[in-house]
Amino acid sequence: MKEFKHFINGEYVASASGKTFENRCPVDNSLIGPVHEAGEAEVDAAVRAAKAALKGPWGKLTQAQRTELLNKVADRINERFDEFLEAECLDTGKPRSIASHIDIPRGAANFKAFSETLANHPTEGFRMDTPDGKGALNVGHRTPKGVIAVISPWNLPLLLMTFKVGPALACGNTVVVKPSEETPATTTLLGEVMNECGVPAGVFNVVHGFGPNSAGEFLTTHKDVAAITFTGETRTGEAIMRAASVGLRNISMECGGKNPGLVFADCDIEKAVEGTMRSAFVNCGQVCLGTERVYVERPIFEKFLSRMKEEVAKLKLGRPEDKDANFGPLVSLEHREKVKYYYDLAREEGATVEIGGGIPDMGAELNDGAWIEPTIWTGLSDDARVIREEIFGPCCHIRPFDTEEEVIELANDTDYGLACAIWTENSARAVRVAEQMEVGLAWVNSWFLRDLRTSFGGAKQSGIGREGGVHGLEFYTETKNICIKL
């Protein structure tokens, strides 16, 4: 059995209150170990340690020295790859084949990618005229924002946490991370790596707990937190915005999505099926960028639907260590209740269940886990709740369309605006449609293809702000203008 303590000022610390909660494996609901729940005292200690570190050795490092340290962190994660892989798979239940190619290596790479990108980005400079004719120089200068609160989700725990911690540290900030209560393991383990690599105490801190009246609320309302970066559902984002308004702290939020896939008749259908399968079902559909609404041009609708059903039937459910398995459980029994509610609701709203739609029989050893069937529906009306609300499970609805104008209107008819995938071999149409999509990320003939130098974030209720590449500079630093009279 493992025990998950807070990591504060370079040390693992138990909660003074003694309060803990259970971390259970979604594969079979077995107990992984107790997690200490932070109270106000632990959160305050973490924030104070982070604030002190800004003026300590960390604040005196050069950019090159910080980059060297963060590169060591990336290398050490890869050296301890198997430990991180085991921890991630225990928490999430996802197949090792997926976590070993996405979660761990890309989580480690975030430290190198962001430190190198941000270290080499120039600031602005302007010469201006003055009445005396001698002029002045204006020079842009960036400084760390301060203590950054990082609220990270459970679907890609290491990857999405380091996507925020990497640039925050590269810019010279310190962090207090609250990982999801469902997936505490890899964030906790990263504390060991920070110590092994010589990252000064207080630079990276971890507190565990829940949202209201727990670690999340105490962290986001702490007066010494300079900015808050969050990935998660829109409702939680709204609560964090309210907390951040006190003291006018900056926020960056990547929230929910109800992402469309647009499949035109001139697409490469096998490419479109492969991409849509991944976007709807990888990580058991628990990807904020995933596709839950699929619109297919009528001439290829039946063929596309048939091919999707064939591919879904091939998905192999199994334990993370099963080399043949490519489909794991949902993250928790609680989340399965939510997804199953929508499966039942789809039937009530008149959906045709093309495949799936229930809870599979996994046998005596696994039936206590959070398993659910990958599912495809057709026949729902455009105002059905299953079409309007984010499910965050392995499911999609496939609907025919007739014209480009129609599908653009259907795809944009949502409160969300995170991402979309467009499948067409017509380059003019690809650009034309992408430019009209009300989203932060538009993929053409691909999905989840990410260049870390580009912007990342959503429109409408899918978020506020952009991170990634130089866009992170705007969030993780304060820019001051230095005006020098000549």
TrEMBL record:
Keywords: NAD, Oxidoreductase. The keyword Oxidoreductase applies. Signal peptide: none annotated. InterPro entries: Ald_DH/histidinol_DH, Ald_DH_C, Ald_DH_CS_CYS, Ald_DH_CS_GLU, Ald_DH_N, Aldehyde_DH_dom, OHmuconic_semiald_DH. It comes from the Bacteria. Gene3D superfamilies: Aldehyde Dehydrogenase, Chain A, domain 1, Aldehyde Dehydrogenase, Chain A, domain 2. The keyword Oxidoreductase applies. The active site is at 254. Residues 12-482 form the Aldehyde dehydrogenase domain. GO terms for molecular function: oxidoreductase activity, acting on the aldehyde or oxo group of donors, NAD or NADP as acceptor. Belongs to the aldehyde dehydrogenase family. NCBIfam families: OH_muco_semi_DH (TIGR03216). This is 2-hydroxymuconate semialdehyde dehydrogenase. It comes from Marinobacterium stanieri. The lineage of its organism: Bacteria, Pseudomonadati, Pseudomonadota, Gammaproteobacteria, Oceanospirillales.
